[in-house]
C-alpha cells in the first residue's frame, strides 16, 4: 500500500515536472528529463543483456552443438570488434562490423522493399475505372509517382500532374494529421485522468 | 483379433483421403496435412464440430494432440518441427455424438527449400531492377550527363548551416529512432556527410544525439571523415556525437533538453521518426531554429511539414543523397529508379484500361484473362 502511494506521488511529480516544460525550461524539467534518460538508458543495457546477449549468444553457445555452436562466434567476434573504438589506435577495426551491419541493412532492404511495398502497392492499384473511388485512387497514385520523378523537369503536362500529386499527398497528410492528433489527445486525457483520479482523487 | 481387424478397416474408411507432405517453399520445420471426410459421414443430425490433429514420432507410439481446426477447414499446417525427422499423423473428426478417426499417415519429414516458388515474381522484378540500375550506373560512369531536378529542401541545407554560423549557434542533427539496417538511416548518413563538411568549413559545432549505439558509431565515422575532407580534423569533437537512450520518449526528452540548453541555429531531423516527431520539431521551432526534416515515416510527415521550414518527403530523401553527392553510382541508381517508375506508370495506365474494358465487354475473355495475369504478377502469395 505504502509503495503504491509512493509510486503514485513519484509518477505524478515527474508528470508535472515534464508538463512544466510547456511554460519554459526549468530545473524541475531538467531533473525529470535526466532521470528519464538515465533510467531508460540503464533499462536498455539490462534489456539487451537479458533478452539478446544472454539467451541468444551465451546460453545458445553453451547448449547447442556442431556448426550451430561455432557459427555464433561470428556475431560474438563482430560485437567484440566494436569495442575496439575505446582505443584510438585500434578504433579503425570497428569499421568492419559497422560495414557488415550497413551492408546487411542495405541488402535486406532491397528485397524487403520490393516484396513488402512495391509489388503489393502496384497490385492494389490495378483497378478498373468503374467507381469514383477507383478513379481517384488510380489518378492519385499516378500523379504522386510523377511528383517523385526526379530526372525530368516539371514543365507543361508533367508539371500539372506533379502539382496534382502534391495535392493528393497533402490531402492524405491532412487526414493523417487530424487522425493522429485525435490519438494524442486521448493520451493527454489519460495522463490528466491519472493526475485527477489516482493522484488528487477529485474525479471518480 | 478378428473384431479388431474389422474395426480397423471401418476406421480407415471415414475419410475420403488424408495427405501429409512437407510444406512447399518454406524454411523447413513444417508439415502440411489435408483431408476430406466421406459424404456419407457428413450429416445434419450429427455434425462435425472440429478436427483435431494428432502427431507421433513412431507409428505405434503415443499420439499427442498438436492442434485443431474448425469443421469448415480441411487443411492444417503443423509448425515448429525438427527437419529430417519422421512424423506420423492422425486426424480426428469430433462430431456432436461421436469421433471419427483417420488412418495413421506417415512417415513424413519436413525440409527447408532453397527456393520459394511463391516469390518467383519478386525474383524476376529484383533482377529487372538490378539490370536497369547497372545499365544506368554504367552510363553515368561513362560520363553521360544525367539530369536531376531541383529539390527545394536540399538547397536550404547550405542556408541553414550558414545561418547557424552567423548566429554563433551549433547545428543539431538527429537520425530519429532508425537503426543502421534501415535504408532511410543510410540515406541520412549521406546527408549528414554533406552537413558535417559544411559545418567543418564554417567551423560550426555539430551535435548529434543518438537513439541507437551502432548509428552513433556510423555517425561518428561519417562526421570524422567529412571533417578530414574539409581539412579541419582539429574541429572534430567525438563527445558531441553521443548516445542518449534507446527509449522513444526518453530520447525525445533528452533531445528537447539539448535543444533548450544549446539553442541550435539549425536542426536536421533526418531518419525514421515515430510519435516523438512533433515534440522534437515543436521544441526546435520554440528556440527559433531553421529546421529541415526528412523521413519516410508517412504518419510523421504531416507533423514535420507543419512544424519545419523544409521537409524531404519520403523518396526525396534518397534522391537527396544523389543530389548532394553526384557520384556515378548514386546518379545511375536514381536514374534507374526513375526508369522503373516510368514502367510502373505504364503498367498502371494499361492495366486500368484493360480492367475497365474487361468489365464493359464481359464477353471478351481475352481481356479478363489478361487482367488476371497482370494481377497475378503483382500478388505476393
Identify the CATH class of the largest domain in chain B: Alpha Beta
Largest interface: A-B, 64 and 74 residues
Beginning-to-end CA distance, first to last residue of chain B: 50 Å
Low-confidence parts of chain A, pLDDT < 50 over ≥5 residues? Answer: none
Total beta strands of chain A: 0
Report the uncertain regions of chain B. 3-9
> Count of helices of chain A?
7
Rg from Cα of chain B: 31 Å
| Share of helical residues of chain B | 40-55%
Number of helices of chain B: 11
Q: Please summarize the sheet with the most strands of chain A.
A: none
Examine the coordinates and then state which fold CATH places here, giving the name of the CATH topology of the largest domain in chain B: Rossmann fold
What level of helicity do the residues of chain A show?
over 70%
Structure report:
The complex is a heterodimer of chains A (204) and B (381). By secondary structure, chain A is an all-alpha fold. Chain A has a domain at 127-204. Chain A has helices at 2-19, 27-63, 67-71, 73-82, 95-125, 132-147, 156-199. In chain A, helix 1 (2-19) packs across helix 2, helix 4 (73-82) packs across helix 5 (95-125) and helix 6 packs across helix 7 (156-199). Chain A is extended and about 65 Å long. Chain B has 3 domains: 2-108, Sandwich (Immunoglobulin-like), CATH 2.60.40.10; 117-137 and 329-377, no CATH class; 153-325, Rossmann fold (3-Layer(aba) Sandwich). In chain B, a hairpin with a 3-residue loop joins strand 6 and strand 7. In chain B, helix 2 crosses helix 10 (328-360) and helix 3 (152-167) packs across helix 4 (183-202). Classes of the chains: A mainly alpha (204), B alpha/beta (381). Chains A and B meet through helix 2, helix 5, helix 6 and helix 7 of A and helix 2, helix 4, helix 5, helix 6 and helix 8 of B.
Amino acid at each position: 500500500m505504502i509503495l503504491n502511494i509512493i509510486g503514485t506521488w513519484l509518477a505524478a511529480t515527474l508528470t508535472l515536472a515534464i508538463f512544466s516544460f510547456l511554460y519554459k525550461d526549468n530545473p524541475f524539467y531538467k531533473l525529470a528529463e535526466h532521470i528519464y534518460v538515465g533510467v531508460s538508458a540503464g533499462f536498455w543495457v539490462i534489456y539487451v543483456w537479458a533478452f539478446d546477449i544472454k539467451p541468444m549468444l551465451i546460453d545458445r553457445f553453451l547448449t547447442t552443438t556442431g556448426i550451430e555452436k561455432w557459427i555464433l562466434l561470428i556475431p560474438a567476434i563482430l560485437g567484440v570488434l566494436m569495442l575496439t573504438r575505446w582505443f584510438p589506435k585500434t578504433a579503425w577495426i570497428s569499421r568492419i562490423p559497422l560495414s557488415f551491419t550497413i551492408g546487411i541493412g542495405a541488402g535486406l532492404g532491397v528485397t524487403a522493399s520490393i516484396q513488402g511495398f512495391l509489388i503489393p502497392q502496384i497490385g492494389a492499384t490495378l483497378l478498373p475505372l468503374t467507381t469514383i473511388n477507383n478513379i481517384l485512387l488510380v489518378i492519385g497514385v499516378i500523379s504522386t509517382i510523377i511528383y517523385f520523378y526526379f530526372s525530368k523537369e516539371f514543365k507543361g503536362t508533367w508539371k500539372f500532374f506533379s502539382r496534382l500529386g502534391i495535392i493528393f499527398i497533402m490531402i492524405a497528410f491532412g487526414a493523417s494529421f487530424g487522425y493522429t492528433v485525435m490519438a494524442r489527445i486521448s493520451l493527454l486525457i489519460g495522463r490528466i485522468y491519472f493526475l485527477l483520479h489516482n493522484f488528487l482523487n477529485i474525479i471518480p | 483379433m478378428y473384431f479388431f481387424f474389422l474395426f480397423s478397416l471401418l476406421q480407415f474408411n471415414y475419410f475420403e483421403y488424408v495427405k501429409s507432405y512437407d510444406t512447399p517453399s518454406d524454411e523447413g520445420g513444417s508439415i502440411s496435412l489435408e483431408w476430406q471426410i466421406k459424404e456419407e459421414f457428413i450429416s445434419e443430425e450429427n455434425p462435425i464440430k472440429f478436427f483435431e490433429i494428432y502427431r507421433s514420432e513412431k507409428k505405434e507410439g503415443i499420439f499427442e494432440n498438436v492442434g485443431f481446426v474448425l469443421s469448415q477447414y480441411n487443411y492444417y499446417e503443423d509448425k515448429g518441427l525438427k527437419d529430417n525427422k519422421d512424423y506420423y499423423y492422425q486426424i480426428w473428426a469430433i462430431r456432436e455424438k461421436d469421433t471419427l478417426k483417420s488412418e495413421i499417415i506417415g512417415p513424413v519429414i519436413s525440409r527447408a527449400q532453397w527456393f520459394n516458388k511463391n516469390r518467383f515474381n519478386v525474383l524476376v522484378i529484383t533482377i529487372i531492377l538490378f539490370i536497369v540500375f547497372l545499365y544506368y550506373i554504367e552510363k553515368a560512369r561513362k560520363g553521360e550527363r544525367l539530369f536531376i531536378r531541383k529539390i527545394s529542401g536540399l538547397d536550404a541545407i547550405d542556408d541553414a548551416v550558414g545561418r547557424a554560423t552567423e548566429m554563433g549557434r551549433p547545428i543539431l542533427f538527429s537520425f530519429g529512432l532508425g537503426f543502421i539496417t534501415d535504408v532511410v538511416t543510410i540515406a541520412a548518413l549521406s546527408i549528414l556527410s554533406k552537413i558535417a563538411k559544411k559545418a567543418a568549413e564554417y567551423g560550426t559545432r555539430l551535435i548529434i544525439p543518438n537513439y541507437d549505439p551502432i548509428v552513433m558509431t556510423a555517425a561518428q565515422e561519417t562526421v570524422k571523415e567529412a571533417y578530414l575532407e574539409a581539412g579541419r580534423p582539429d574541429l572534430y569533437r567525438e563527445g558531441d556525437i553521443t548516445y542518449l537512450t534507446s527509449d522513444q520518449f526518453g530520447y525525445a526528452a533528452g533531445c528537447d533538453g539539448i535543444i533548450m540548453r544549446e539553442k541550435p541555429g539549425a536542426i536536421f531531423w533526418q531518419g525514421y521518426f515515430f510519435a516523438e516527431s512533433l515534440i522534437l520539431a515543436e521544441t526546435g521551432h520554440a528556440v527559433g531554429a531553421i529546421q529541415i526534416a526528412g523521413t519516410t515515416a508517412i504518419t510523421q510527415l504531416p507533423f514535420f511539414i507543419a512544424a519545419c521550414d523544409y521537409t524531404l518527403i519520403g523518396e526525396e530523401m534518397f534522391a537527396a543523397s544523389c543530389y548532394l553527392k553526384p557520384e556515378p553510382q548514386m546518379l545511375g541508381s536514381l536514374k534507374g529508379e526513375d526508369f522503373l517508375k516510368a514502367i510502373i506508370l505504364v503498367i498502371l495506365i494499361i492495366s486500368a484500361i484493360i480492367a475497365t474494358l474487361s468489365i464493359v465487354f464481359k464477353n471478351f475473355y481475352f481481356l479478363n484473362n489478361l487482367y488476371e495475369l497482370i494481377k497475378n504478377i503483382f500478388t505476393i502469395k
